[in-house]
Design goal:
The complex is a heterodimer of chains A (about 800) and B (about 375).
Chain A lengths: L1 E3 H5 L10 H11 L2 E6 L9 E13 L5 E8 L10 E5 L9 E5 L4 E2 L3 E2 L2 E4 L2 E4 L1 E2 L16 E2 L10 H5 L5 E5 L10 H11 L22 E3 L7 E8 L9 H9 L7 H13 L4 E4 L7 E5 L5 E3 L5 E3 L5 E5 L2 E5 L3 E2 L12 E7 L2 H10 L5 H8 L6 H16 L2 E2 L4 E3 L7 E5 L2 H6 L5 H10 L3 E5 L2 E5 L10 H12 L19 H15 L3 E2 L5 E2 L1 H7 L23 E2 L4 H13 L5 E8 L19 H10 L5 E8 L1 E3 L8 E2 L2 H14 L5 E4 L5 E11 L2 E9 L1 H6 L7 E6 H6 L16 E10 L4 H12 L3 E10 L8 E10 L10 H17 L2 E2 L1
Chain B lengths: L17 H17 L3 H12 L4 H8 L5 H40 L18 H14 L4 E2 L5 E3 H4 L10 H5 L12 E3 L4 H10 L4 E10 L11 E11 L4 H16 L5 E8 L2 E10 L19 E10 L1 H6 L8 E8 H9 L5 H5 L2 H7 L4
Parallel strand pairs in B: 1-4
Antiparallel strand pairs in B: 2-3, 4-5, 5-9, 6-7, 7-8, 8-9
The chains are: A alpha+beta (about 800), B alpha+beta (about 375).
Chain lengths: ~800, ~375
């Protein structure tokens, strides 16, 4: 909302010591936040003076233009008192006119410096200004011709033009609709400085009579008050006076025509949207009703709108003539020939306005006010003000008929304990202060012992609840008066176990050299295809966004790999070729259930709550990693090591070790992994994820390097099994006995199976086992491989006897032979 | 080698004569002294102290002596061997020292060579900064509450006093999920976590809810459809705006230093009443000569977010008696605070996954 300071001053007499910044600071602290101040005077540097055109010679030019060679009396402003010679291209003035002259040295908006210069064969010493050149609007043709009594040559034109009029732009919160008017803003200014307020809506209005234009309201809930007034003999050629056009422009509205401008002006002044009809185009009674679904209306913006049964419409005998409170229709629009005008000032149901505006994607200055709540008690005053201006400025005659249908809704009364504002704000606020401030905002207040009852003023439909009154009192006392006190929180338990574990996962992975990323969850069919997911793959069943930012990516991720691979490709594309990434994020599993929309007057019942919980999709937290390039860099120490499938599996294994979870790894096939290099990761029988090398096709599809390795696991599942309370270990201080063994098995026997057999066969004395070599070649035979293990044996309570370790080793080998066909080399 | 001497008594055995033993000893000691390095000394040790050395052989002859002579000869040979062993030990020590000295010189390396074989990883600064923020509240005894990202419409809006026709509902551009009547959204704020907390426990409630939120903003340097918020909620008996101010002052002081406190300006949010915008003192210019300050753009204050007293309607919808309890709540953007605290100029860096971004922050902020 843009409010010219001069307009505010019409309703509140701000003393000189209230500076602009004092005013805006105070209003900001009252809840009308200062957005910006603009002042045309700030953009112009003088000298800018009144001049009288003494002579004017029209001089046609070769380029087809005609210029005026003028001499202009600028008094003593030019230091000589001699007439100033100026070339001017505009033609809307004659000798003797008072004009605005900027003399050499002046600077106009856009850093346009005025100097004496030779042009069209003359020395032009200055410029005769148009409004646009002074930054005073854009819609004026020609230069400014001042009224004959505007001043004398040489007078400072800043004052004459009223250029020094700051326009304050406020950000108005949705609850303070009353401040979408000069009436509301001035009222706050008066309240802020404890000054008297002149209410522009306070005016005597003629009583309703039976002579007015007939109005029928079928839906009193949607339109509680409808006031119709009319004027005749309006001069359609009458123009909007400059002061009104300026104010409309200052407030951000474009002047259109006098009749329209008057309605807009009154809307800005009082906050009450007004609609004007060409009365001659109306046939029969004006009626307000709900539309029938499917009815059509062409609104003033030229759009044909199909209406819903909830839309409030205004009709006459010809049909629908307007979308009530939101926008009028074309058929009864005021035109350049209109002489008879019906003025509608109606109070509309705010919710209905909001829904209609939303449904038809219509935002208008009228709609904005009507949907937030307008003072229902000023309909007659607003209509009367419009009639007054049409009579005064448009030569019209006010018709005697006054139609008033309906009555304004009753004012809301709210009862609160007198000390509630003090109790809620923590400020020491006396009962007297509370009463005074509530009265200052316009409430009628009655006190009864420890409680008070406040009747909210008609312009404050936002005041409905006890705490609304608290805010009113506290904002006037001042939010800066709120003391700073720490609340007495009970002793806490710190982070939850899951939160602690997740932090540990992050530090473990970062410690292992991986960098965390955060990706958008939006994916599309193309991602499923890039990953090579089969038609029936469960990951293709995803939640779909109704209104995605990108229609190609309407789904919510069921796997983190698309986002991670895109980040990987981005890094590689930017020249970082050795990359290790991880992401922990929720993935989304559709439930197909619909969430209930419950009431808010009480807590949901257990059943209702259960239905909400059931409808909210399962969203497990996943962990994904992606690796490419060097795991260990090459350098003076030798060749580096490239990350591979084993790093992907190893990273998850190391994480499981860190969390004390026993992970089982078996070979499997699953998209998007390389079919021969994909590990299934299990805890017991539960599959928690997969790791390995990315399928070459997937690498190509995501433009990531070949051999990129990835893993994705259900992190929640891993954390569920984490050992949170570690039992202190007991370990032997007796000597260790080491035994190595090399076993030949068929090439397709998993190393994990051999190790498991060795472990079982070795028995309790086995402390650890490590595979230190895998060998294939002629020596071990076609289709075979040799696995070399280092075994360490130790007893908890004694030194092993000669032969004990080797016997255990033999037992281990025997078990491996039995289980896996292993032969000792 | 001679056999046991049983034929005559006493017998003279040449190698055991005193002068012979002394000669052998002296030769050994001289050879030891002459050994130039550990390798030579090894040979000297074999020659003069080994099993086949003259003194060792002489020692074997002792048995051939008549019993009365054995003692003296044994002592003589023993002393000689002892001297040799001692000389060997001393020489070994000297030569080892010399060897070590040489090694230490020869083994000199260029310690300025690069040493980084593995790159350091990093957690995302949003993660670590969320933790740091949470730490401030955890230290006050609060707890950290979390909730799902796809949320029931009722929890995201209705329970927070944003009914279907509430103007504020359109202020937040919401991602809705199909089917259109599923009443599910990507949460537009972390406030549904507050509602969940109140629905799951009675006061006293002291929680912060950091987390990811979604709005239909196109990506640019300061907007992202995905971003992060942290909200705080206190519901207890006798809670006032003063507690809100105290909490926020403590937080900004903990994060930005002494003197960095907050101020309130009246505002509007459906879930709080009274509502306020909160600003913090600019931690760069501290409100002094702010005109040139790039962080606060001359304001002296930095906008943080919104806060207020929990609207009793919200308490009611969440099953808490507003006649007994009152609450305070606040919320602000983690990304935005990260940006101004760490001079991050482009929000896209947060979500593009370029490792150079997160790596700059390491594992803690």
């Amino acid at each position: 909302m843009k409010a010219p300071l001069s307009w505010i001053r019409e309703y509140v007499d701000l003393p000189a010591d209230v500076t602009l910044s004092a005013l805006t600071d105070r209003l900001t602290m009252l809840g009308l936040k200062l957005e910006a101040v603009t002042n045309p005077a700030d953009a112009v540097t003088g000298p800018l003076v009144v001049g009288r055109v003494l002579t004017l010679e029209k001089e046609p030019q070769k380029n087809g233009k005609t210029i005026n060679w003028c001499t202009v009396d600028v008094g003593d402003a030019n230091g000589t008192g001699e007439p100033q010679g100026i070339v001017c291209g505009a033609h809307n003035f004659v000798e003797g006119d008072l004009v605005v002259v900027c003399l050499p040295g002046a600077v106009l908006p856009g850093d346009f410096e005025i100097s004496a210069r030779k042009t069209y064969g003359h020395l032009s010493a200055g410029m005769i200004c148009s409004a646009a050149e002074l930054g005073l609007g854009t819609d004026h043709d020609g230069i400014i011709v001042l009224p004959a009594d505007a001043g004398a040559p040489g007078d400072d034109a800043f004052d004459v033009l009223g250029m020094d009029d700051p326009v304050i732009e406020f950000e108005i919160n949705p609850d303070r609709a009353y401040a979408l008017s000069l009436r509301g803003i001035a009222r706050e200014a008066a309240l802020g400085f404890d000054l008297p307020f002149t209410d522009p809506a306070a005016r005597d209005t003629p009583a309703a009579n039976a002579d007015g234009h007939p109005v029928v309201v079928d839906d009193a809930a949607g339109c509680p008050v409808f006031v119709a007034r009319s004027v005749s003999g309006f001069d359609p050629t009458a123009t909007t006076p400059g002061w009104m056009a300026t104010r409309l422009e200052q407030a951000g509205m474009r002047p259109v025509s006098l009749a329209v401008d008057v309605t807009n002006y009154v809307m800005l002044e009082l906050g009450r949207p007004i609609h004007g009809y060409d009365r001659e185009k109306l046939s029969g009674a004006v009626r307000v009703r709900r539309a029938a679904a499917g009815e059509k209306l062409t609104t003033l913006d030229g759009v044909v709108r199909t209406l819903s049964a909830e839309d409030l419409v205004v009709t006459d005998d010809s049909g629908i003539i307007g979308l009530g409170g939101v926008m009028g229709g074309e058929t009864t629009e005021i035109s350049e020939t209109t002489t008879s005008i019906l003025v509608e000032a109606a109070h509309w149901d705010a919710v209905s306005m909001f829904r209609t505006g939303k449904r038809h994607r219509l935002t208008s200055e009228a709609g904005k006010r009507n949907e937030r709540g307008v003072d229902p008690e000023i309909t007659e005053a607003a209509a009367d003000r419009v009639v007054e201006l049409l009579v005064e400025l448009g030569g019209a005659t006010a018709d005697a008929g006054v139609t008033v249908v309906g009555t304004p809704p009753a004012r809301v009364s709210i009862t609160i304990p007198v000390d509630l504002p003090a109790r809620i704000s923590g400020i020491d606020i006396s009962a007297e202060t509370t009463l005074a401030h509530l009265r200052a905002v316009g409430c009628e207040v009655a006190i009864d012992g420890d409680t008070l009852t406040a009747v909210a003023p008609s312009w404050r439909p936002d005041l409905t609840d006890p705490y609304d009154l608290v805010e009113e009192v506290v904002r006037i006392v001042g939010y800066d008066q709120v003391p700073s006190v720490l609340p007495p929180a009970p002793a806490g338990r710190g982070r939850s176990e899951a939160q602690r574990l997740r932090r540990r996962v992050g530090t473990t992975l970062a410690g292992a050299g991986l960098v965390e990323t955060i990706s958008y969850p939006f994916v599309g069919d193309a991602d499923w295809d890039r990953l090579g997911l089969a038609e029936g793959d469960e990951r293709r069943t995803a939640l779909r966004v109704v209104n995605p930012l990108n229609n190609e990516e309407p789904f919510l991720a069921t796997t983190l790999l698309p986002g991670l691979l895109k980040a990987l490709a981005r890094n590689v594309g930017r020249g970082t070729t050795d990359v290790a990434l991880f992401e922990t994020s929720l993935v989304f599993e559709p439930t197909g259930a619909k969430a209930p929309l419950l009431g808010v007057d009480r807590r949901p019942s257990d059943e209702e709550w259960a239905s909400i919980e059931k409808a909210v999709p399962r969203q497990p937290m996943h962990l994904a990693i992606a690796l490419t390039g060097h795991a260990e860099d090459a350098g003076w120490w030798g060749a580096g090591r490239l990350a591979s499938w084993s790093d992907a599996i190893g990273t998850v294994r190391a994480l499981a070790d860190e969390l004390g979870v026993e992970l089982t790894v078996t070979a499997t096939t699953r998209e998007p992994w390389h079919p021969g290099r994909c590990a299934e990761l299990r805890i017991g029988e539960r599959v928690i994820g997969h790791a390995g090398e990315l399928h070459p096709k997937v690498c190509k599809a995501y433009a990531v390097p070949a051999r990129t390795a990835v893993a994705e696991i259900d992190l929640d599942a891993l954390l569920e099994h984490a050992t949170t309370v570690v039992t202190g270990p007991e370990f032997s201080s007796f000597p260790v006995a080491k035994e190595d063994v090399a076993l030949v098995v068929d090439a397709d026997v998993p190393a994990a199976a051999v190790e498991a057999a060795l472990r079982e066969g070795a028995g309790e004395l086995l402390e650890s086992i490590a595979l230190f070599d895998v060998f294939t070649g002629e020596q071990v035979g076609e289709g075979k491989k040799s696995l070399a293990y280092a075994l360490r044996f130790r007893a908890p309570d004694r030194t092993l006897k000669e032969g004990e370790a080797s016997a255990a080793r033999e037992a281990a080998v025997a078990m491996a032979a039995e289980r896996t066909g292993a032969v000792q080399r | 080698m001679s056999g046991p001497n049983t034929d005559y008594d006493p017998v003279e055995v040449t190698p055991l004569k005193a002068e012979e033993v002394e000669r052998m000893r002296d030769e050994a000691v001289a050879a030891i002294a002459a050994a130039a390095d550990l390798e030579q000394l090894k040979q000297v040790r074999l020659d003069h102290a080994g099993d086949r050395s003259p003194l060792a052989l002489a020692n074997r002859e002792i048995g051939a002596l008549p019993p009365q002579a054995r003692k003296e000869a044994g002592a003589r040979v023993g002393q000689a061997r002892g001297a040799v062993t001692k000389a060997l030990g001393e020489r070994t020590s000297v030569l080892e020292d010399e060897h070590e000295q040489r090694m230490l010189v020869e083994e000199r390396v260029d310690v300025t060579l690069p040493t980084k074989r593995r790159r350091a990883g990093a957690r995302h600064p949003i993660t670590t900064f969320s933790e740091r923020l949470s730490d401030v509240f955890l230290a006050m005894g609060w707890e950290v509450a979390e909730g799902p990202w796809v949320e029931a419409e009722w929890l995201n809006f209705d329970a927070l006093n944003m009914g279907p026709d509430h103007p504020a509902r359109t202020m937040q551009d919401t991602f809705w999920l199909e089917p259109a009547d599923a009443a599910l959204v990507l949460r537009t704020h972390t406030s549904p976590v507050q509602a969940r907390t109140m629905l799951s426990q009675q006061p006293p409630i002291y929680v912060v809810c950091p987390g990811r939120v979604y709005r239909t903003d196109e990506v640019d340097a300061t907007h992202s459809p995905v971003f992060h918020q942290i909200e705080g909620l206190v519901v207890d008996e006798g809670i006032t705006m003063a507690h809100l101010k105290g909490t926020l002052d403590h937080m900004t002081t903990a994060l930005f230093g002494e003197g960095i406190t907050t101020r309130f300006r009246p505002s509007y949010f459906p879930f709080t009443e009274p509502s306020a915008e909160m600003d913090m003192v600019c931690f760069v210019c501290r409100g002094v000569d702010s005109d040139a300050c790039r962080t606060c753009r001359g304001e002296g204050w930095i906008e943080l977010g919104g806060c207020g007293v929990v609207n009793p309607r919200v308490l009611t919808a969440c099953g808490i008696d507003p006649e007994v309890y009152s609450g305070i709540a606040f919320g602000f953007g983690i990304d935005r605070m990260l940006m101004f605290r760490h001079n991050v100029t482009d929000l896209r860096d947060v979500f593009e996954g370029d490792v150079r971004f997160a790596s700059a922050f390491g594992t803690e902020i």
